[in-house]
Specification:
The complex is a heterotrimer of chains A (263), B (512) and C (331). Chain B is 80% helix and 0% strand. With 512 residues, chain B is mainly alpha-helical. In chain B, helix 4 packs across helix 22, helix 16 crosses helix 19 and helix 17 runs antiparallel to helix 19. In chain C, strands 2-1-3-10-4 form a five-stranded mixed β-sheet, with helices on both faces. In chain C, strands 7-6-8-5-9 form a five-stranded mixed β-sheet, with no helix packed on it. The chains are: A alpha/beta (263), B mainly alpha (512), C alpha/beta (331). At the B-C interface, helix 3, helix 5, helix 10, helix 16 and helix 19 of B face helix 5, helix 6, helix 8 and helix 9 of C.
Chain lengths: 263, 512, 331
């Protein structure tokens, strides 16, 4: 197998023994937002996100990617269907801090320092966590020396690093990433894309990534799922695991084709 | 010294000069006293005024604490249990609209001698605005923040304590800032229910003994105290590095999505609940039916056509001048905000002046304005307008400065002038804030007009209620209370409906 | 009849805890357990209630075994509710207010009358005076509209056509008269004219009581229930009042000085209080057999009922009950 560039780093084959993530099974999942008129956000979807894999969700704006992510996180109640994560409901898993989530705009609380933002997740998840865990994670995302800083004093990229640290501090079984690198410039985005995903991939955590960047989807994930226009349904399911450089190009082309065919 | 400070000082000096000039023009009228005489009187009576101010400020402070605490609890309750909001807001509005003339004597009977009524009336004067502001503040949290708590399976309480509480601090401070002068006024009016000392007592004494200098002196002290509190809270919010938030109180809430029949059922439910609270509260305190009438008494009383006629005549007398005053006050506030936006230099000049005007307690301004402008339409309309223009002004000013930078740039790139920008971009951006203040101004206008009628003009429903003191016609008093509350709620709903109608055309994103 | 110690201003001002016993010499023995009662005043503290302050300071009530609190009134502090509610044993009201309250179902009795002559007056400036009711014709009178019945009663009593008087609604304030917006004011003889006098403005006052307007003012009211169950306390309260007011009658200037000294925070001006005390005295202690404080005759009750009828207030002699005052004097 020919592996090169960032892909080599990212697509290190996983050993079954370290997989701690869980399967995420969506059955007949749909969401209609009540209002005038009601909005069909998601067609009934049957989809399984495999344990330990990183799956990317791509699709046109407003296709329901984020809604799907929020349904899996338990932040929205499905109109029909269900989500099971390793057999548990999202709510059950969430109570143990089993789900970590990062948002596009970092969503750090501006009145808390980096350290306090990260440790907040532990507190919310009712986990004690050892005293060094927060510091270690902050160091791991490359924010040594900024633990005491307020978010306003950080760059956009640094804020995303802090958000990823908060997302991982509870050692979740499932990581949900909603455009985590969407608000930073191209260069920073590439660096974050190279440095951060190993943090969850190495632990064998199941991850679902929503992104607008086809290239990011193909390089960072094992599998790319293309959703249609609203109401979202699955139109393509492309394996992107263990791809070489030219395969990545082919993968990008395949995903792009699927997206273009939507119109 | 910064230009800002310099302008503020100039503005203060300007106000003093204006005051002195007004005095010299009307020196023989026994209405106005000049700043020089007032200063002399204050120096001569420093001990007396100091002790009175201490008494009043202490009562105001306790009322401020209790009232805002109640507001915070109510707002927190509503945010945790959103379905209770409609009920809570209406109950809050109705209680806020209870005329002081009616509540004062009952509080005195309940508390006996002491500062109880003063503190309660100060608390009642502050809780409503803080409640409204804080509900918005607790809600105005980015979704990603509130998701955070739910992501870890935590409920609305955790969300409230960990995230919303801290995020709403700027709004709370804005609410407290509005509340500070109101607390002082509430404490002073509370002294009318029988107090040994305080600024309200001195005001009464000075007005009765034709002591214009003393009247103005006490009014100045009360205004100064209110302004200091206002400025101190303002400084506190700047210290935190957060400017005051925009009080964009979005229209309604979920009400829009609720079908009409359910809203009607809600209104009936709220009414029944309030009537029950009324009946039960009075029974619980075993208040005598002689003065503490129950809903049934009022119902029976209003069945008499003669009573209804008297009441409606008085109400009509009140409303024909309240409505123009209300509209004039809102327009004055919005207009002044527009002027200040067109001439940015005017801001530092106008803001302190309007804070001053707002801080002088109505119990001294009302009689003086009525003396100066007459008991007719002009006097009453002016008092209502003066009482409500300030919140509208501040809210509109915030709203006007909210126009996004890019929108300004687009206008600038087409060479559009300030006026064009104001009309096409800033005024639409201001509308939500304008309507928010318009809703808050409803009870304020009613308070202003009934107080003025009571203390100065001797007409309308305010006087009808005050007459109870000599006639013991407490049925009439309570009927008037019910009518005033009904008017307040109706007006509030009308403004809310107007708000929806306008915002759905100009600021659709505000109507959720 | 109680023997009263002559009162001097010096003694009144010098009253402290030590001198309270002094006032008690020769009077009834102090009761060990003081019953707490409240007297609801009808307005802010002023010399208008000086007799009560004297009773307080001289220990007259303590001698009766009473610990009396004097509850201040104010513009938003009606007297009747606390008396009905029982927070005050006795209140200072007036015949017209009390009869209205009785009509509304309050079981009141007037047990003593401080101002036997009603203080309502017409105040005018000497250049354009109102000296008798007939002078009102063609004049602009400043008053609260609510007081129209008072003016109507005065006109009826003196055959004056009220249509010939222009009523200008004003606040309770002398400014409109001084500024020339009106020719005369309907007010108390003891407040606005005093305020004008202190400001150096001469005025003419026509006391309405001199022209047949008979309404007992500053009348002591209690509930029927209290008369039945707390009679001794009411009598004791009245006895203290009588003693205090007799002292007042002896030296109004001392009473004014005591008032100002007792309430340093009330913003009272000594000169004003002295002048007010002087003008209050003839209203409380007119000549004839009504000179005793608080006393009212059957004739005056009859006159009151007549005037009250003109005010559209029905009242009958049952409203008045002199027996407690008689007991107080007999004690």
């Amino acid at each position: 197998m020919q592996i090169c560039g960032t892909a080599r780093f990212l697509k290190r084959p996983m050993q079954d023994s370290i997989i701690k993530g869980r399967d995420v099974v969506c059955t007949g999942l749909s969401k209609v937002f009540g209002g005038r008129p009601p909005v069909d956000a998601l067609c009934p979807i049957d989809l399984t996100f495999r344990a330990g894999e990183t799956t990317a969700l791509v699709g046109p704006s407003g296709c329901g990617k984020s809604t799907l992510l929020r349904l899996i996180a338990g932040l929205e109640v499905p109109t029909e269907g269900s989500v099971r994560i390793g057999g548990e409901t999202p709510a059950e898993l969430a109570r143990r801090g089993g789900i970590g989530m990062a948002f596009q705009d970092a969503s750090l609380l501006p009145w808390r320092s980096v350290h306090s933002n990260v440790s907040l997740a532990l507190r919310l998840a009712r986990q004690s966590g050892d005293a060094g865990a927060v510091d270690r994670l902050i160091a791991l995302v490359g924010l040594d020396g900024f633990a005491g800083a307020r978010p306003a004093a950080l760059s956009g990229g640094m804020r995303q690093r802090a958000a990823i640290a908060r997302c991982l501090v509870t050692a979740p079984d499932l990581v949900l990433l909603d455009e985590p690198f969407g608000a930073v410039d191209e260069l920073t985005r590439a660096r974050l894309g190279a440095e951060l995903p190993p943090l969850w991939r190495d632990r064998g955590t199941t991850a679902i990534l929503v992104t607008h960047s086809v290239r990011e989807a193909v390089t960072l994930s094992d599998r790319v799922i293309v959703l249609s226009r609203r109401p979202g349904r699955v139109v393509a399911d492309i394996t992107s695991s263990g791809l070489g450089a030219e395969d990545i190009a082919a993968g990008v082309e395949a995903v792009t084709d699927a997206l273009l065919n939507l119109t | 010294m910064s230009a800002r400070t310099l302008l503020a000082i100039l503005s203060a000096l300007g106000a003093l000069a204006l005051w002195q000039a007004l005095f010299m023009l009307n020196s023989d009228s026994l209405v106005i006293a000049g700043p020089v005489d007032v200063a002399r009187w204050l120096t001569a009576n420093a001990g007396l005024v100091g002790r009175a101010a201490r008494t009043t400020v202490l009562a105001a402070l306790w009322g401020f604490v209790w009232g805002n605490l109640a507001a915070i609890l109510m707002a927190a309750f509503v945010v945790v249990l959103p379905r209770t909001e409609r009920f809570m807001s209406f109950a809050a509005l109705v209680i806020f609209c209870l005329p002081l003339v009616a509540t004062g004597p009952i509080l005195r009977v309940l508390f006996g001698a002491g500062a109880g009524p003063q503190i309660t009336l100060a608390a009642l004067a502050v809780y409503f605005t803080t409640y409204l502001t804080l509900v918005v503040g607790l809600r105005a949290v980015p979704q990603a923040w509130s998701d955070l708590a739910r992501l870890y399976g935590r409920g609305p309480l955790t969300e409230l304590f960990v995230i919303r509480a801290r995020a709403s601090v700027p709004y709370l401070l804005a609410g407290l800032q509005i509340a500070a002068p109101a607390a002082v006024l509430g404490a002073m009016v509370g002294e009318f229910t029988g107090a040994e000392r305080g600024l309200g007592v001195l005001t009464l004494r000075a007005m009765r003994s034709l002591d214009v200098v003393a009247t103005w002196g006490i009014a100045s002290v009360a205004a100064a105290v209110s302004m200091l509190a206002y400025l101190a809270i303002g400084a506190l919010s700047r210290l935190r590095g957060q400017g005051p938030p925009v009080l964009i109180l979005s229209a309604g809430t979920q009400a829009a999505r609720v079908p009409v029949w359910e809203r009607a059922a809600m209104a009936v439910g709220v009414t029944i609940a309030l009537l029950l609270v009324w009946q039960i509260a009075m029974d619980a305190f075993a208040l005598s039916r002689f003065f503490a009438k129950r809903p049934g008494d009022v119902w029976a009383y209003l069945a008499e056509p003669a009573a209804r006629r008297t009441l409606l005549t008085a109400l009509w007398e009140t409303l024909i001048w309240t409505v123009p005053g209300y509209v004039a006050g809102l327009m004055l506030g919005a207009g002044l905000a527009a002027v200040v936006t067109l001439l940015p230099g005017a801001r530092a000049l106008v803001l302190p002046l309007s804070v001053t005007l707002r801080s002088v307690p109505i119990i001294t301004t009302a009689p003086l304005l009525v003396l100066a402008l007459g008991r007719g339409a002009t006097g009453t309309i002016s008092i209502v307008a003066v009482m409500i223009f300030f919140p509208a002004f501040v809210a509109c000013l915030h709203g006007l400065t909210q126009t996004p930078g890019q929108v300004r740039d687009v206008f600038a790139s087409y060479g559009a002038g300030r006026l064009r920008l104001l009309v096409s971009a800033q005024i639409p951006a201001m509308l939500p804030a304008f309507f928010a203040s318009a809703r808050m101004a409803v009870p304020a206008a009613l308070l202003a007009v009934t107080t003025t009628e009571w203390l100065a003009t001797g007409r309308g429903i305010g006087t009808l209620m005050a007459l109870t003191a000599s006639t013991s016609d407490y049925n009439m008093l309570w009927s008037a209370v019910v009518v005033v509350a009904l008017v307040a709620v109706t007006a509030y709903l009308l403004v809310e409906a107007a708000e929806r109608w306008v915002l759905s055309r100009y600021a659709a994103e505000q109507v959720r | 009849m109680t023997s009263l110690i002559p009162l001097t201003r010096r003694r009144l001002l010098g009253v402290g805890a030590a001198t309270i016993g002094l006032g008690a010499v020769g009077l009834r023995p102090a009761v060990a357990q003081n019953a707490e009662v409240a007297l609801q005043l009808s307005w802010l503290h002023s010399v208008q209630f000086a007799g009560s302050y004297i009773a307080q300071q001289q220990g007259y009530w303590e001698n009766e075994g009473l610990k009396v609190s004097l509850n201040t009134g104010g513009p938003n502090a009606p007297v009747e509710p606390p008396v009905v509610a029982g927070t005050a044993l006795m209140g200072i009201s007036a015949a017209d207010y009390a009869s209205a309250a009785v009509a509304q179902g309050a079981p009141f009795r007037i047990v003593a009358v401080a101002m036997k002559r009603n203080p309502f007056a017409i105040a005018s400036l000497p250049a354009n005076p109102v000296q008798r009711p007939a002078d009102l014709v063609g004049k602009r009178i400043g008053m609260a509209v609510a007081n129209t019945p008072v003016l109507r009663a005065l006109c009826a009593l003196n055959d004056v056509d009220i249509a010939g008087i222009e009523i200008v609604p004003t606040q309770y304030d002398a400014a409109p008269l001084v500024n020339g917006q009106v020719d005369c004011l309907l007010c108390w003889a003891t407040d606005l004219p005093v305020a004008m006098a202190i400001q150096g403005i001469d005025s003419t006052t026509m006391l309405m009581a001199d022209y047949g307007y008979a309404v007992h003012s500053q009348a002591y009211i209690v509930t029927e229930d209290s008369i039945a169950n707390r009679r001794a306390e009411i009598v004791g309260l009245l006895r203290g009042e009588v003693q205090g007011w007799e002292d007042y009658n002896a030296d109004t200037a001392a009473a004014a000085a005591l008032t100002v000294a007792m309430f340093p925070d009330a913003g009272l001006d000594l000169a004003t209080q002295e002048e007010q005390a002087r003008r209050l005295r003839p209203l409380m202690f007119p000549y004839g057999d009504e000179t005793r404080f608080g006393w009212f005759t059957d004739d005056s009750v009859a006159a009151n009922i007549e005037t009250l009828a003109l005010l559209d207030r029905g009242a009958n002699a049952d409203l008045w009950d002199r027996s407690l005052l008689e007991e107080a004097y007999a004690g």
